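Minutes, project check-in
Item: structure for the 698-residue chain
Input as provided by the requester:
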Amino acid sequence: MDPKAHRRAAILTTCTLIVASLACRSSGSPEPVDDARLVAADRDSANWLTYGRTYSEQRFSPLRQINDSTVPQLGLVWSHELPTTRGVEATPIVLDGVIYTTSTWSVVYAYDAINGRQLWTYDPVVDRSRARTICCDAVNRGLALYGSKLYLATLDGRLVAIDARTGRPVWDVKTIDQSQPYAITDAPRIAKGRVLVGNAGAEFGVRGYVSAYDAETGTLAWRVFTVPGNPAAGFESKALEAASKTWHGEYWKAGGGGTAWDGIVYDPDLDLVFFGTGNGTAWYRDLRSPGGGDNLYLASILAVHAQTGEYAWHYQVTPGDNWDFDATQPLVLADLALDGQPRKVIMQASKNGFFYVLDRATGKLLSATPFVDGITWASRIDSVTGRPVESPSAYAGMKAVLVSPDPEGAHNWQPMAFDAAAGVMYLGARHNTLRVHAPNALWVNDVSNRNMGDDPRYEGELDTRAAAAPAPRGELVAWSVANRRANWRVALPVSQSGGVLATAGNLVFQGRGDGLFTAYRATDGVALWSFDAGTGIMAAPVTYLARGAQYVTLMVGWGGTQGLVNPPNMGPVKPGFGRILTLAIGGTTKLAPTPYGHPAPPVPAIKLDTTPAAVREGEFLYRTYCRFCHGRNVVAGPVPDLRYATADVHKQFESIVLGGARKTLGMPSFDDKLNSAQVRAIQAYVLSRAAAPVPRPR
């Protein structure tokens, strides 16, 4: 980061903290949250103490003041605009009348839960020049709470302890090697005085791991790697030594992948930590592990002992993953009666389209059932071996194949909600999705760029086949776990929407990409109430009590992969400025969202002397380096849509792309990848897209 910008941010943070400290002195201090209080969080209906409300992460609230009869009276009480148009994914923490939450670039906010008064903000001053090696936007999913401290995992890989009363940092430790393309987007978790955190970066080439830090001092307690390293250096555990036998070639040179970028839970009864792992580097098994193999522990659910990190068990959801089928989706714990037997289970609605139920003490597969239609990569999960029966059409070695679900998955990171009494999981799902998977025989490991191993020559085929296929469609699903079927499904106008909250008021809340926040009757899925949040919604809402009244709070902001890569295929999504909303019965405040967007079709801002060959080269280079942030075909969501770039921007085009003129805004330099002629070719392609007909969302 530019040193002057860093100093300005530090001064701003200090000034904000001084004001916050004065404000908090009059509001009192929250009671410390100890292990006993976290274990009993299910009985604490007034607060929302952890990412998933309780250790089980069921996201079910016993509150019923807002219910299927009173919900039509729900209205806005207060809101705040956030200074971002990028993805907002956080689940707020609520403790004794104070809301703690995060936004893009890992910025933390504290609000009075009743009137919305901002108590403090903390900016960890993330190095925004690292934006090139962030998979899916500068998002953050929230905080952990323990004692009197909040714990923040920053995008650039630090774990920060923050005084909950004042917002002042207490300690700050690096959890990654910052010379490598790691990032962190997930919320930390707590396990008996330790803070658990994973990381991301498998799209670029890293080796995944999960770490546990002492909550008081920030000292590293243990670290568990998810894939084996170089055998010549020895293995950290017998589990990794065993895993190495499922890999081939010099897999460690590209890191391996398997990052645990979301989906960590803790069971205090078994004293086990569970987490899911992601895709490999590269995506394709024949590139990363010539000769095949299951490639443990990619795309797996692992259990380790909370005190030591020692391996307990694993279940590989997608052996030898070839399709970016991460197993990092939310994990939910429950005690259920299945087939007449009481079971301690862990559940996941996987990216790959199957709903998994495992015995969480042993990892034994209890059931795996499709929760969407149109799955083409596998016909079923064998109940005896626990392995998928892969379809012949799903894999062709180094040849391209068309597979469903696509890399966005049948279900992604968005939280689910589980009603244990009814035995029903409520989740967002995607159907009839597909992707051309094409490994690149010329792939070379490169941690400075997208390292997935895609063959860019198939980009056109991807666009053509996707345009000819049915559009992806989204649903809200009420999934009966014991019966292994949907009780009901609600069709949504967008293919992927936000996280879910369920309550004892017979309600299920979910936001959508078009900005509509809706309450459904839990028994039959009938929509009872809606509120236009003004911007697309990805995050999950929370609910709590303050001075006897029940409130619902929601973070709003469309981004992530959904907002950045291909918005035309997402349906009528609504990018815009992020915000926090709080609603209650009788709320009458009107929302006045900050205007966003372009009222007219784009027009090329300048004329550039170029050739068709240069435009074609620019298209190839754009797809290689630019589309992940600025959108396929230069149709962007929350980041600048380059079709609307002004003449002044075009004059600075080279200084921005090569000189890093806007690196402090999250646009780093590409001078190690591109030269002046190539930048000019990209510029020519961008201008050609500004002159092209505007594609209609479908």
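Outcome recorded: Residues 27 and 112 are 9 Å apart (CA to CA).
No further action items on this chain.
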